[in-house]
Design goal:
The complex is a heterodimer of chains A (about 190) and B (about 500). By secondary structure, chain A is mainly alpha-helical. Chain A has two domains: about 120 residues; about 70 residues. Chain A contains nine helices and no strands. The longest helix of chain A has 28 residues. The relative contact order of chain A is 0.11. The radius of gyration of chain B is 22 Å and the shape is globular. Chain B contains 16 helices and no strands. Chain B is about 70% helix and about 0% strand. Chain B is mainly α. At the A-B interface, helix 8 and helix 9 of A face helix 4, helix 5 and helix 7 of B.
Chain lengths: ~190, ~500
């Protein structure tokens, strides 16, 4: 017997699982899992939630989100904020920052999912390249900085994250190149 | 956009779109040529100062040297983009709005760069080589260096937007860049189409290399900015240099590949002979994609920590980089012109001259790319000799030739006037002399980037000043024509 569960419930379950103290502590004990697992999963939950929003909500939001600009600005502000090392530290040490993270990052995902399809393809391209460049810049920065950026994480953790960011950026570049150069889609979207 | 693609393969636009596009192209050419002229005046000033004919402060010399470098690269990019866009839009649907957007972003970047140099005193050369911008010893502030790098970054963003539009339009028509580049024909998956537009092949190549160049620039410029404000962060200087030269060399090198489209498109019209696309042509352009990106380490041959394989690759690729497209284009142009009964107008003379400048201009670079010669020559005036030859006699004649075509010679078959002939020969002699004096200076071990020259070197600088004055005269006549006649000229049919 196949039990049909609504996707919204699955998303809520995933969100609750992430918020449970053991899972939260497990993911936040390392800079790598904090930045490359917990935050992206929260954003993905938001993205999927954005897809499931009722149509009348979407049409009301669209009035305030022409060409996806408002939503993208909101997403970029939230993203930039959570890239600040101080804030990441604060999220570990202070519960209200943690709460803000669990609220704002899914909102960023929702904003992205509602705005990305409305964006001009050229603007999408510029943002994609900027995201890619951010991966490479941060990766390089984390590898080369002599000091810890986050008081809660070890220098070695920071370096591993740097390497992973550079690897992810490189993989992204290869995927993108294959797609526009030869029309090969590794990830079907 | 309300135009539609027609069966002939060319895109049709509405009259208002075409009018707007023509104005945009003319704006690019006038801006480009005006900046070139101003930069040449800067060059003339530097040569006169080295020749002891005028006196300028050392600080000002390095500021002029910086603005001269960045200005020429910027002018080359904006003018060559105008040439490329004019022809590419015939085959793929390009957006006028994006083209204008890039133009205004470019102007914003120019204002920032000028402010950083002449108000902030930045004089660390256009290459902003790390860690020089951060260690000015008081010559300029951190803010000035930052504004300079932000200006370059902003220009890069504008270009990126334009290239994304090129990419979107090319992918919409051809499905993949490989197909636009003709790889499916080259490797036998599709029959060779002799009418496959050369403008599309060249633009795809330029798009690929410049996109990657700008991506590298976007990373390295921000890392430089971080270092300016957080000196604790000290990135690997060798990696920074590699990325800076990858960005800088690709960008300036690609301008000639963008401008050569004018030769492909215009020479067949003047000779009345078609220039067919074939496998050799496609293979040459495919090879150049990699060569343009792979040759930049010839700027790093003096850096001993560079791995040996990179040096060897740089030397081999530099030897070969000019050959494929140059041979295909040069030989093709010669065959097109030979016994064609071509009427030599200023346009055709300039386009034909560009083939010579391109072919001969790479020879000093090939010599300099030999490790043993590079060790002696690279920090001498030999290198400016190479790029002045390449740009003054290769790139600029393509751009000015296209300007003349738009300014009337293309439509009314207008004959050159006495001022045009004076401009052409003053420019030709001046440009050739400028380059040869630089090369001779390099061969005599005169260093480059020196504000003050030793007494033994002064004569070279003085001859160079006379040559530069001739170049300025020729360019002034060309630019005046562009400013006064181009705005009212109709679109050649």
């Amino acid at each position: 017997m196949i039990i049909k569960i609504k996707q919204e419930w699955l998303l809520l379950t995933a969100f609750v699982v992430l918020a449970l103290p053991p899972m939260q502590q497990f993911l936040e004990q390392s800079m790598v899992t904090h930045m490359l697992v917990q935050i992206p999963v929260l954003a993905i939950i938001g993205w999927m939630l954005g897809k499931k929003l009722p149509e009348n909500w979407k049409s009301k939001i669209t009035l305030w989100n022409r060409w996806g600009i408002t939503g993208m600005v909101l997403a970029v502000i939230i993203m930039t904020y959570w890239m600040l090392p101080r804030v990441l530290d604060a999220a570990i040490s202070e519960w209200h920052f943690e709460l803000v993270k669990f609220v704002t990052v899914p909102i960023m995902g929702i904003a992205l999912s509602l705005s990305w399809p409305l964006l001009n393809p050229i603007a999408q391209g510029v943002l994609k390249l900027e995201f890619w460049a951010t991966f490479m810049r941060l990766g390089w920065l984390y590898l080369d900085l002599p000091d810890r950026l986050c008081a809660n994480y070890l220098l070695s953790d920071q370096r591993i994250l740097g390497q992973l960011l550079l690897l992810s950026g490189s993989a992204w570049a290869i995927t993108w190149t294959l797609r526009i150069m030869f029309g090969i889609r590794i990830i079907k979207t | 956009m309300s135009g539609t693609a027609v069966a002939s393969g060319k895109v049709e636009y509405t009259d208002s779109e075409n009018r707007n596009a023509l104005i945009a192209v003319k704006a690019h050419l006038i801006a480009g040529l005006s900046v070139f002229l101003l930069m040449m005046l800067g060059g003339l000033t530097m040569r006169a100062a080295q020749g002891t004919w005028i006196e300028i402060g050392v600080d000002l010399f390095y500021q002029i040297m910086t603005v001269h470098g960045v200005g020429v690269v910027g002018a080359a990019v904006i003018a060559s983009t105008g040439v490329q866009w004019h022809f590419l839009r015939k085959y793929v649907r390009l957006s006028n709005a994006i083209f204008w957007t890039n133009f205004f972003i470019f102007l914003t970047g120019v204002v920032m760069i000028l402010g950083s140099i002449f108000l902030g005193g930045y004089g660390g050369a256009w290459t902003f080589l790390y860690p020089l911008p951060a260690i000015s010893m008081g010559a300029w502030s951190t803010g000035a260096a930052a504004v300079f790098q932000l200006g370059v970054l902003i220009i890069g963003v504008g270009l990126l937007i334009l290239y994304l539009d090129f990419g979107r339009a090319i992918l919409a028509r051809y499905g993949s860049l490989a197909r636009a580049l003709g790889l499916t024909m080259l490797f036998g998956k599709e029959p060779v189409d002799p009418a496959h537009p050369k403008a599309v092949v060249a633009s795809t190549m330029v798009l690929i290399v410049n996109f990657l160049g700008i991506a590298a620039g976007a990373v390295v410029l921000v890392m430089g900015l971080i270092n300016l404000y957080n000196p604790e962060f000290q990135p690997d200087a060798m990696l920074m240099k590699n990325l800076i030269y990858f960005f800088g060399h690709v960008i300036i090198n690609a301008t000639i590949y963008a401008s050569v489209i004018a030769v492909y498109e215009l020479l067949p019209r003047y000779t009345g002979r078609p220039w067919k696309t074939n496998k050799v042509f496609l293979a040459a352009w495919f090879a150049i994609v990699f060569m343009v990106m792979g040759v930049y380490p010839h700027h790093l041959l003096m850096d001993f920590p560079m791995p040996a394989w990179a040096m060897i690759a740089a030397q081999v690729l530099s030897f070969g980089s000019g050959i494929p497209v140059l041979v295909v284009t040069g030989y093709g142009a010669l065959m097109l012109v030979y016994r064609s009964g071509i009427k030599w107008s200023t346009t055709t003379k300039l386009l034909f001259l560009s083939m010579f400048g391109w072919a001969a201009g790479v020879i000093p670079a090939i010599l300099d790319a030999m490790v043993t010669i590079n060790r002696v020559f690279h920090n001498t005036l030999w290198v400016p000799g190479h790029f002045h030859f390449y740009l003054l006699l290769g790139l600029l004649p393509m751009i000015i030739g296209f300007t003349y075509y738009l300014a009337g010679e293309g439509d009314r078959n207008e004959q050159p006037k006495a001022t045009d002939s004076l401009g052409f020969y003053a420019y030709l002699i001046g440009a050739f002399m400028t380059s040869m004096v630089f090369l001779a200076s390099g061969a005599n071990s005169i260093p480059r980037r020196w504000a003050v020259h030793m007494e033994e070197w002064v004569t070279f600088a003085q001859v160079g000043t006379i040559a530069a004055a001739l170049v300025v005269l020729g360019t002034l006549l060309f630019t005046l024509r562009a400013i006064f006649i181009l705005p009212g000229a109709a679109n050649p049919r």
